[in-house]
Amino acid sequence: AYAHHALDFHSASGHILLRQYEYERAIEEFEKGLAFAEEIDALTSTTLILNNLGIASSQGNRLQAALQVYKRAAAISRKLGDDTALFSIQCNVATIRARLGELRAAASLLAEAGEMPHTRRSKRAQLFLIHSRGLAERLSMTDARILWQESIRLADELPDPLFASHGRMCLLENEVHHGR
Q1: CB 26 within 8 A of CB 4
Q2: How many Å apart are CA 45 and CA 177, to the nearest integer?
Q3: What would the pLDDT profile of 33-67 be if each residue is shown by its tens digit?
């Protein structure tokens, strides 16, 4: 029972720290939670924590570490047949590839994610895909106005205030960059 509680505690703590932009501390908490998840062989929890660890690593500019974490998460997700996790991982890896300047690889990964069945079944997945495409377009300096407008529309509809506000900020940056 202790390992289950410790897993939940460290995972929740990492998530809170991630949302507070405390990436190094979030990474530490996710790694502690991951150890407990692996100890009790909780594969679904392991995948979730790895995904969050990948996000914290990416946001903390540890891009290669994030890619390695996502590789582990994807392997477990495939083993579990978890298409939802694979979709999220694919989008996250695509945005990292874009940040590394690998724009064609990012576009290819996002195109594959767009063909996954999960994308058509979930408005949240559509939002995440469009948002990820917007981030990749932003890095290529391409006009992503339509993507950001759609991202904001979906985020408001769900509602998802965090994605909506981030989409608005990205739309504003896009408009300034393109002289509008």
Answers
A1: no
A2: 41
A3: 999 999 999 999 999 999 999 999 999 999 999 99
What DSSP string runs through 56-92?
Answer: HHHHTT-HHHHHHHHHHHHHHHHHHT-HHHHHHHHHH
For residues 64, 91, 113 and 143, what is the CA-based torsion angle, rounded to 10 degrees?
-110
Which of 56, 6, 77 shows the shortest CA–CA distance to 35? 6
Integer Cα distance of 83 and 117 in angstroms:
8
Q: Which residue type sits at 95?
A: T
- CA 158/CA 164 separation, integer angstroms: 10
d(CA 158, CA 71): 30
Chain Cα centroid distance, residue 118: 15
Contact indicator for 139, 103 with CB cutoff of 8 Å: yes
pLDDT tens digits, residue range 77-132?
Answer: 999 999 999 999 999 999 999 999 999 999 999 999 999 988 888 999 999 999 99
pTM above 0.70, yes or no: yes
